[in-house]
Structure formats: C-alpha cells, structure tokens
Amino acid sequence: MTHQIRLISPDEARVRREALAELFIDAVEGGAQINFIHPMTREKADRWWDKVLPGHAAGERLILVAEQEGRIDGTVQVVFAGPENQPHRADVAKMLVHSRARRKGLGARLLKAAEEAARAAGRTLLILDTVEGREGHRLYERGGWTMFGIVPGYSLEVDGVTRTPVSFFYKSLS
C-alpha cells in the first residue's frame, strides 16, 4: 500500500495533533535538524504545535500529511511569506518522515506535493534551508532546487552543542 499525501484542514490538524506531535518527536529523536535539541519531549512538541496551528487556521500556512493505513508517516508545511512585497513567495518547512517510513521516497513525494500546493496557492518562488551535506540537502538537489548559500555554524545540532552549517535553497515554480 502506498502513502496518500494530502492537505489537511485546520480542524483536522487539531484533531490529529497527537499524531503530528508523535511524528515530530520521532523525527527529532532520530536526528532531524528542525530547530530543536535532545531530549525532544511531548511538552516541547505540543508547545510548537500550539504556536503553528493558529497560523494554519488563519491561512498563513498549509499543512500536508502522508498517511498509510490511518497513521501519519510524514508531513511538510508551506509557510506563506508575510511581507507585503512578497505575495509570490513561500517557505517549505518542517518536512518530516517517521523512522518507520524512511528510505522509501516519501520525502521526495512530500516535497513535490508541497510544490504543487504552493503553486495552487499562487506562489511561484519557494525557499528552504537544511543542514549542509545531509539527506535533505541531496533530496533538494535531486528535486531541482538551487542552493544559493551556506552559512557556517548557523544552528546547533540536536546535541545542543555542535554548531552546524546550513544550506539555503530556492526553486522557481513559474
């Protein structure tokens, strides 16, 4: 059985919040570099979703999920740019794949779905960042994204100590 990838409504996101939090914890505990350090607790995941879900309800972002047999195995967000002079731009953020579903092409499918959702929302320029040289970096290159810079020591690894370089990518959808 293959994963179904789809946009979820703000109401469904609230209902499925527990599953989204569990995915978040699995990703960080598995080494995902998504702005959190170990230990990734349920409290931290819940706090993060508490901040994100109102933006989803306000139309400031889209949340997509990858599901199989009723469980969420992946997610990605399209966050619309806030400045008035950037109505054409969005960020791709928090692309997560559960450890049980990795290495099966789900990340590439989530990325493509995020691009399609952004295009449908009228966005023609996407931006994202990822840890230099890791799986995400290679995924974005294979997906036709263009790296436009590396910032040394941009963020901390999940250990909370080691500084790591981050690559920035863009993709034009027009």
Explain how this protein is built.
The chain has 5 helices and 7 strands, in the order E-H-H-H-E-E-E-H-E-H-E-E. It has 174 residues and is of the alpha+beta class. It has a 7-stranded mixed sheet, with helices on both faces. Helix 2 crosses helix 3. The model has no long low-confidence stretch (mean pLDDT 94). 31% of the residues are buried. It has a domain of 120 residues: 3-Layer(aba) Sandwich (Aminopeptidase), CATH 3.40.630.30.
The mean pLDDT is 94
Strand content: 25-35%
CATH architecture of the domain at 4-123: 3-Layer(aba) Sandwich
Q: Structural class, judged by helices and strands?
A: alpha+beta
Order of helices and strands: EHHHEEEHEHEE
Low-confidence parts:
none
Radius of gyration: 15 Å
CATH superfamily of the domain at 4-123: Gcn5-related N-acetyltransferase (GNAT)
User: Which strand order does the major sheet show?
Assistant: 1-2-3-4-5-7-6
CATH topology of the domain at 4-123: Aminopeptidase
Helix content: 25-40%
Count of extended strands: 7
Q: How many helices?
A: 5
* Most strands sheet: 7 strands, mixed
- Bulk shape: globular
Cα-to-Cα separation, first versus last residue: 33 Å
CATH secondary-structure class of the domain at 4-123: Alpha Beta
Keywords:
174 residues, alpha+beta, Aminopeptidase, 33% helix
Give a quick precis of the structure:
By secondary structure, the chain is of the alpha+beta class.
Protein topology:
Elements: E1 4-8, H1 10-15, H2 17-29, H3 42-57, E2 61-68, E3 71-80, E4 89-97, H4 106-120, E5 125-131, H5 135-142, E6 146-156, E7 163-172
Parallel strand pairs: 4-5
Antiparallel strand pairs: 1-2, 2-3, 3-4, 5-7, 6-7
Helix pairs in contact: 2-3
